[in-house]
Design goal:
The chain is mainly α and 80 residues long. The protein has a domain at 28-80. It has 3 helices and no strands. The radius of gyration is 15 Å and the shape is elongated. The two termini are 28 Å apart.
Length: 80
């Protein structure tokens, strides 16, 4: 699910436009995963036990943090 460090650790080994394309694809993948979880939540969240809700909430926070992180990385990479 989160095996993307190889993308982030290697952008200096390719041309910048290709690296930024991969960052965009990574953001799209994270966004799609977050969207899928939201759709799941719409249908099942109210029926989950507390432990399930807690894990779901944790995952949502993680997706939000990852999207903020990728935005920061992209901005810094463009400025480099």
């Amino acid at each position: 699910m989160f095996d993307f460090n190889v993308v982030i650790t290697n952008p200096n080994k390719m041309n910048k436009s290709k690296a930024l394309e991969l960052v965009t694809q990574l953001r799209s993948s994270i966004t799609a995963s977050k969207q899928a979880k939201n759709e799941y939540a719409d249908e099942y969240y109210s029926h989950l036990p507390l432990v399930g809700k807690t894990i779901f909430d944790q995952q949502q926070l993680l997706y939000t943090a990852l999207l903020e992180w990728i935005d920061t990385f992209e901005k810094q990479f463009k400025e480099e």
